[in-house]
Amino acid sequence: MEIILKQDIKSLGEKDDIVSVKPGYGRNYLIPQGFGQLATPSAKKVLAENLKQAAFKQDKIKKDAEGIAQRLTDVKLSIGAKAGETGKIFGAVNTIMIADALKQQGFDVDRRRITFETEPKFVGEYVANLNLHKEVKVKVPFAVVAE
């Protein structure tokens, strides 16, 4: 019996895979639980069309991310923070501050896609990693300056 999986199942396959299972497992577990549907010829055609459209959307998202990455190569940010005499920052420089600084320069990047190589705890130069797409990653240098 062939089943089209609606979600990832650890020992069986990933979402949108067509897998062969024993009839009892398909009829009594996968289909009633909503984990899969019967792989009829019409369901296979619908799946093929959905995969084609999803691939087109992912390609467009990736191209947009590559365009943003190209423009981000020349960007250098400066983040102001209160610091003591030794250069230690009071509080923290976080991803929200980086996202706001990028937004001021015309780049709309979600703060959850930003990570640091080393946590900024002192005044100085740092690098932020931007994960724009699973295949497109950019390193943006930024400076923490005392206010």
Polypeptide structure, described:
The structure is a single chain. The protein has about 150 residues and is of the alpha+beta class. The protein has two domains: about 1-60, 3-Layer(aba) Sandwich (Ribosomal Protein L9, domain 1); about 70-145, Ribosomal protein L9, C-terminal domain (Ribosomal Protein L9, domain 2), CATH 3.10.430. Helices cover about 35% and strands about 25% of the residues. It contains three helices and seven strands. The strands form two sheets. It has a four-stranded mixed beta sheet with strand order 4-7-6-5. The protein has a three-stranded antiparallel beta sheet with strand order 2-1-3, sandwiched between helices. The longest helix has about 30 residues, at about 40-70. The chain is elongated and about 75 Å long. The model has no long low-confidence stretch (mean pLDDT about 90).
Kindly summarize this structure in a few lines:
By secondary structure, the protein is an alpha+beta fold.
Strand and helix map with partners:
Blueprint: E1 2-5, E2 18-20, H1 23-33, E3 36-38, H2 41-72, E4 77-81, H3 95-104, E5 114-116, E6 124-133, E7 136-146
Parallel strand pairs: 4-7
Antiparallel strand pairs: 1-2, 1-3, 5-6, 6-7
